[in-house]
Amino acid sequence: MTKAVYPGSFDPMTNGHRDIIARAASVFDEVVVSVMVNVSKKYLFTVPERLNLLSESLKDLPNVRVRAYEGLLIDLVREEKVDVIVKGLRNATDFDYENTMDFYNKRMAPQVESVYLMASHEYVHLSSSAIRELMAFGGDVSGLVPPLVEEALRLR
Ligand code: ADP
């Protein structure tokens, strides 16, 4: 039984996130999607809103669970007793960032492996920040985020 955690801010969740989660769910027995909370950051959606959008948009995936965590990823890993950290890689910027994160995570928990899934080609340019910006100026985000997220963005 292999348990994985997929951390992120999901502000908001995109179809790129969903793609990684669905692919991780087909590889691992259980996937915990964790909204990582940083009190010093400003978000568009509250934690309960992000959790609700995630769980509603992932309810067809029975081995996926959604939660929030405030603190270090490695402490969540210990609390949940996960075997693997899953990350999505879009480009060299993600690679450099994740390479550094891996250095710190390995120092603190050398037994925990990280597994990187390459972004699907149609989502390689997709980020939560681009979605927020596009929406702020009334741009079209259809097909880039789950329908429920699109609706929530329209109401903002
Ligand atoms: P973002 O970088 O879009 O603000 P998060 O901080 O929530 O998103 O990212 C959580 C994880 O999802 C990270 O591993 C990130 O690299 C990955 N990710 C984000 N967007 C995509 C995408 N379009 N395709 C694949 N992976 C992605």
Spans of at least 5 consecutive residues with low confidence:
none
Q: Helicity range of the residues?
A: 40-55%
Ligand catalogue: adenosine-5'-diphosphate
The SSE order reads EHEHEHEHEHH
Q: Order of strands across the widest beta sheet?
A: 3-2-1-4-5
Q: How much is the radius of gyration in Å?
A: 15 Å
Q: How much of the sequence is in beta strands? A: 15-25%
Distance from first to last alpha carbon: 41 Å
Specify the structural class: alpha/beta
Total E-strand runs: 5
Whole-number average pLDDT?
Answer: 97
Regarding quaternary structure, what we see is: single chain
Largest sheet: number of strands, sense, barrel closure? 5 strands, parallel
Number of helices: 6
Coarse morphology: globular
Describe this structure in words.
The chain is α/β, with parallel strands linked by helices. The chain is built from six helices and five strands, in the order E-H-E-H-E-H-E-H-E-H-H. It has helices at 15-27, 47-57, 73-80, 92-108, 128-136, 147-155; strands at residues 3-8, 30-37, 64-70, 84-89, 113-118. A five-stranded parallel beta sheet has the order 3-2-1-4-5, with helices on both faces. It starts with a strand and ends with a helix. The model has no long low-confidence stretch (mean pLDDT 97). Bound molecules: adenosine-5'-diphosphate. Adenosine-5'-diphosphate binds at residues 8-10, 14, 16-17, 20, 87-88, 90, 94, 119, 123, 126-129.
Task: Sum this structure up briefly.
With 156 residues, the protein is α/β, with parallel strands linked by helices. It is built from six helices and five strands, in the order βαβαβαβαβαα. The protein has helices spanning 15-27, 47-57, 73-80, 92-108, 128-136, 147-155; strands at residues 3-8, 30-37, 64-70, 84-89, 113-118.
